[in-house]
């Protein structure tokens, strides 16, 4: 990693930098870290930052990538997942970029990672206070469904004016009998800002609430960073008398590690395999599932 | 621990990448040289530099070749490359009066100060597909290139020589200003041009940022925004008269790091447009004309014209119409394409969650039908009462 | 007793000009355009109080400044001069104009409600009738779906909106029914002050009459302080106890509604009353 030295002229810096394979120069990393600090200081508030063009398209994790690149140091170990899977094409591509350009170690085991970059999932393993979860965010604005005008949106956040969000929940309940908001469920962070939870499933939201780890959200295309610091309230917007429901399918269980089956005593977020027999389910967190399977084999 | 290759994805993307590289090399044609792109596909090269936000003809040519001609992909390569470069210094704002014209037209007047210089333009070339013999064309091209090289060794063949050395022709706008026919749109509240690669733009940002966004916008997006405002539902634009259309070379300078003196470091070609519009609003200065400005890198007249026209629309529009937001947030080619194409990424977690809600809705509906209730699970509402209900129903303490 | 609403020396000039340019405008000059600045003196030197449970009428023809006064009170417009106080805000000690825009907007949630002539201004027509009520209630902090439903149902019943239409988008409602929903929403959390701007103008005569009946009953029941702006004396007569007459941006006469109707003093009031009596 290049260390900024104010006594070195920019020209010398350029000369020294030509061999660097890094995707961000040190000035850019510093600016992103500043935005992260602001985001941590104001939980749930979307901090604008000068998002750089990355070697991945905007909308493909460029925001999460910039956060990870601004944070990684020589001691870090990075895990990258997409849909809970380490082997997904997008996860593999981002992992390759991060590893090749920074030389950092990578892992698939959540507990071994200092930074977990993810799209659409939070790992099933509980993360600790020495870990950072970096979430790739396609749409950072939770209120876009009820308001399009950016100036008005800023006012609504500034004044904590979320009545229209509540009304949309009311209308949803009246029309559909249940809240139909699926992933990316809006949450009130620290009792102040309503935040878009990327699109992680509702299943994952309790894992952000008062968690030990720091969660950082990066939206590269929309140039916003926001954060949930450790031990911060993340409360899904829901009426007092309408319980917040996470995804569950009665009788479903992982066909590999049996998570979710009544006798397993443990649950995970399951995805369906439509091509196989009825009722075939599998854990979305593949590494967690693999480890369960391995330990079960050993025990047996 | 080292690098852990998760199985499946890594192999797949590596194989796809290998296929791309191999196919690019074994295309069954001779290697594409960079100068063929810079010299023979000039508009393409210029467009990629403009949308990529980096003036570097040979790098742009590389990007186009690598992207196999995909303009947005090539612009992306340029911008991503730019992200890796340290910022050494900032240019001194270029003075457009120093633009040395290769082409200059003034549609607003027949006789103008300085020449009407048609220059190199496709405007009046017949749109007839050339079906001539390939071998003859190849020979003619070689002969012409050789002849030009003999005349001006090392020169750019379309460089204009002689007739328009400084001072360059006065602008029509200067004439209008002198005769007090144009409103002054130069503003003092935005003295240092905003570098849009260094800030997150959003509505309310200064005019320099808005102009920069348009200069870097995807050409098709800007042309479409213009057209939908002329013909479509948005209707913020009127047809303008063009006061000035110029294409030429713009000197670029930086401050010397020791002496602070301006130092010429090169030229870039740019297209500049000034548009003139009638002011007719009740609260506008109807005795004068409004002026809009467009300046884009390279030769790209349609983008510069759209930009100048939208510039007028933006400062005339003081309503909350969303035009500013549309220009700032929706015209970037990389943003729009990236988000569009992200739909190709796996979405099975979100889709699983969607299916689950559909099922929950059905369960709820079935439950209510069994109970013979209305669709929604409204906790006990008051039973339908006679139309004339005693006052007691409405009044009373209400608490959250 | 502190008045629920108190307006002192309210003035609003559109376009150029200051207090110095007000001279030469008003009823005495038969004009609102300032001869010195060209600005429009839409309202000037307007003062009144409204007590709890009282309804004050503001009457005048279009262009008299009555709607300007209302928009200045509710915060849709910023007056050029004057002060506005609510008993519910610091016991009437604070001029609302000194509050931030955000705080002024917040007052609209529980201290002040407005019923506009055009229901589209006070409602979101895309939402259901119940959803419109829910918007005000959730803004005021209600977080219990059942209680919101219950309250919305009560209000629908009370404002004669058929309960089985409660979950339909207001866009599908007739003008009269939209106005009833607007009333239901405005009164949903018992705000101490309600401003009604031409609440029945634009409705068919029979519909207007029933909406008027409803407003009268509601004002009586709820004990709110109301300001009713109208060009129509029959509306003022039915709803208010006191009235001010506005002409060319000034109050030209004030008094008890029935007395003023019986015996108007100012020639302009006489003309208005005469016209109303046909």
CATH class identity of the domain at 1-111 and 196-201 and 227-278 in chain C? Alpha Beta
Low-confidence stretches of chain A: none
Q: CATH H level of the largest domain in chain A: which superfamily? A: Bacterial phosphonate metabolism protein PhnH
Largest Cβ-defined interface: A-B, 86 and 66 residues
Topology order of chain C in helix (H) and strand (E) letters: EEEHEHEHHHHEHEHEEHH
Estimate the mean pLDDT confidence of chain C.
Answer: 93
The rough form of chain A would be described as: globular
**Strand order in space, largest sheet of chain A:** 1-9-8-5-4-2-3
Describe the structure.
The complex is a heterotrimer of chains A (300), B (400) and C (278). Chain A has seven helices and twelve strands. Chain A has helices at 10-17, 26-41, 62-71, 89-102, 150-158, 163-176, 286-299, and strands at 47-48, 77-82, 105-106, 115-119, 132-136, 187-189, 193-195, 214-219, 224-228, 234-236, 270-272, 281-283. In chain A, strand 8 and strand 9 form a beta hairpin. With 400 residues, chain B is an alpha+beta fold. Among the domains of chain B are: 29-83; 91-119 and 158-331, no CATH class. Chain B has 13 helices and five strands. In chain B, strands 1, 2, 3, 4 and 5 form a five-stranded antiparallel β-sheet that branches. The longest helix of chain B has 24 residues, at 348-371. Chain C is of the alpha/beta class. Chain C has a domain at 1-111 and 196-201 and 227-278: 3-Layer(aba) Sandwich (Rossmann fold), CATH 3.40.50. Chain C has helices at 66-74, 101-110, 119-122, 129-139, 145-158, 175-186, 205-222, 233-239, 257-262, 267-277, and strands at 5-14, 40-50, 55-59, 81-86, 112-115, 193-197, 225-230, 242-247, 250-256. In chain C, strands 5-6-7-3-8-9 form a six-stranded mixed β-sheet, sandwiched between helices. Chain C is globular. Chain A binds chain C through residues 155, 158-159, 161, 163-164, 166-167, 170-171, 173-175, 239-242, and chain C through 102, 105-106, 109, 124, 127-128, 130-131, 134-136, 138-139, 143-148, 167.
How would you concisely characterize the structure shown here?
The complex is a heterotrimer of chains A (300), B (400) and C (278). Chain A is of the alpha/beta class.
Which helices and strands, and how do they pair?
The complex is a heterotrimer of chains A (300), B (400) and C (278).
Chain A: H1 10-17, H2 26-41, E1 47-48, H3 62-71, E2 77-82, H4 89-102, E3 105-106, E4 115-119, E5 132-136, H5 150-158, H6 163-176, E6 187-189, E7 193-195, E8 214-219, E9 224-228, E10 234-236, E11 270-272, E12 281-283, H7 286-299
Parallel strand pairs in A: 2-3, 2-4, 4-5, 5-8
Antiparallel strand pairs in A: 1-9, 6-7, 6-10, 8-9, 11-12
Helix pairs in contact in A: 2-3
Chain B: H1 9-25, H2 34-40, H3 42-52, H4 57-66, H5 71-83, E1 91-92, E2 100-105, H6 134-151, H7 172-178, H8 207-216, H9 219-230, E3 241-255, E4 262-278, E5 289-297, H10 301-316, H11 323-330, H12 333-341, H13 348-371
Antiparallel strand pairs in B: 1-3, 2-3, 3-4, 4-5
Helix pairs in contact in B: 2-3, 2-4, 3-4, 3-5, 4-5, 8-10, 9-10
Chain C: E1 5-14, E2 40-50, E3 55-59, H1 66-74, E4 81-86, H2 101-110, E5 112-115, H3 119-122, H4 129-139, H5 145-158, H6 175-186, E6 193-197, H7 205-222, E7 225-230, H8 233-239, E8 242-247, E9 250-256, H9 257-262, H10 267-277
Helix pairs in contact in C: 4-5, 4-6, 5-6, 6-7
